[in-house]
Amino acid sequence: MPMALAAHTHSVPATLHDLDDLPEEVVGHLVDGELIVHPRPEPPHVEAASELGWMLVGPFRHGINGPGGWVILDEPKILFGSQLLVPDLAGWRKERFQKIRKGPYTVAPDWVCEILSFSTRRFDRSTKLPIYARAGVRHAWILDPDAQTLEVLRLHEGHWLIADVFEGACKVRAEPFEAIELDLSLVWGEIEPEDEEEPGTPSPTE
After folding, report:
1. C-alpha of 2 from chain center
2. Of 183, 186, 171, 191, residue with least CA distance to 50
3. For residue 128, what is the domain's CATH number?
4. Which of the four, 19, 44, 55, 116, has the lowest number of CB atoms within 10 Å?
5. Any domain includes 199
């Protein structure tokens, strides 16, 4: 059973030091002085993030069969004012990216991608997206491995507009990475249904 969203409350606001004490199997965020903790994602989420990151890093970070000009990172800790969030993927245009040796990044990215899972989908949509909008993140992708959908959001006057919605094993050009075609079938992979019965297995009612 997936771990539910957990909030660790403190008599005083949580700080960056509280994140250092978390076990490796969870991901922590700081929102309005509270430490919000989620379990590490399940394999479909991890595989989708890895595939998408691999598809983008070559052409957009290293300029391999693509325009380059981006820095794309997995699960970076980023400060958005007093809030600290960890997107599944984040990208900065190279001219805006600032390298750091320790601590969270402090420059808001130009693009984020959140990959929905049972324990995070509400937090990703209702908490993270408004914070990203207030920070001026220009694009956000919402990837749902279970539904096999990709929502492409564009910031306009402080609000998110749906630029595109893609579904299933299709090839897409999605802003801000429309310079190359992405094959979403590689992102979804092949996942066997959990409840599928072996051939010849009698049902409980038989």
Report:
1. 18
2. 186
3. 3.90.1570.10
4. 44
5. no
Q: Kind and range of the H or E element at 36?
A: strand 34-39
Angle at 126 between CA 194 and CA 170, to 5 degrees: 50
Question: What mean pLDDT, rounded, does the chain reach?
Answer: 88
Q: Based on the number of CB atoms within 10 Å of its own CB, is 200 exposed (0-12), middle (13-18) or buried (19 or more)?
A: exposed
pLDDT in tens, 64-117: 999 999 999 999 999 999 999 999 999 999 999 999 999 899 999 999 999 999
Amino acid at the residue 78? I
Domain annotation covers residue 129:
yes
The single-letter DSSP state of residue 71 is E
Q: Which residue has the tokens 């969270």?
A: 104
Nearest to 16 by CA among 86, 74, 63: 86
User: CB count, 10 Å around CB of 66?
Assistant: 18
Which of 83, 82, 55, 58 shows the shortest CA–CA distance to 69?
58
Distance from the first to the final alpha carbon of the chain: 28
Q: What is the pLDDT of residue 77?
A: 96
